[in-house]
What does this fold into?
Amino acid sequence: MDAKHNLALVREWERLYNTDRNLLFDTLYAAECRVVYNGVSEFDGREALREYQAQVDEHAPRRKLAVERVHAAGDIVVVETVVRLDPAAAALGACVVLTIRDGKIVEDRTYAPAGA
It folds into this structure.
């Protein structure tokens, strides 16, 4: 996919993160995706990612993400985001490095404060 398609995928990723994370995982992540969170936690596959996000949802069910900047080169997209655990909460900066192949996220490397 070219940069234009990858940028469109990131906009859909943002929208679904905020509206339906299960649909996000089902439609944008490859079944055998790999997710690395802060270089500490690693998840292989959509189901492991879904289980992890369910735990995060228990602690921050109202969290929202906003994409601030996007940098795309080939199949790599770097996404600078702001996450709010609650609408009134302070903004937390985060960075996500996505590897996209055949229109699906095959790797997600997230660098964020805990719970974001």
